[in-house]
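re the bet — no i am not wrong, look at it urself. input seq straight from the record:
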Amino acid sequence: MKTILGTTAIEGNTQTEEQVTAVLEGKRVAEPRLEINEINGAHAAYKLLEKFDPYSLPREGFH
C-alpha cells in the first residue's frame, strides 16, 4: 500500500494513506476520479508484476 501511495504521489496524487487504503478495499470515496483511477491502475500494475517472470522473455529483439 505504501508503495502505491508513494508511486501515485510522485505523479501528484494528493490522497492520504487512509484514502488509498479505502480505495484498495473497494470502499466508495468522494475523491477526484483521476486520483482514484491512478491508485487502481498502480495496484493493477503491481499485481501484474507478481506474475512477471523476467527469465521467460525471448532473447531475440533485445539489445
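see?? The mean pLDDT is 88. told u. also Helices lie at 2-10, 17-24, 33-51. so pay up
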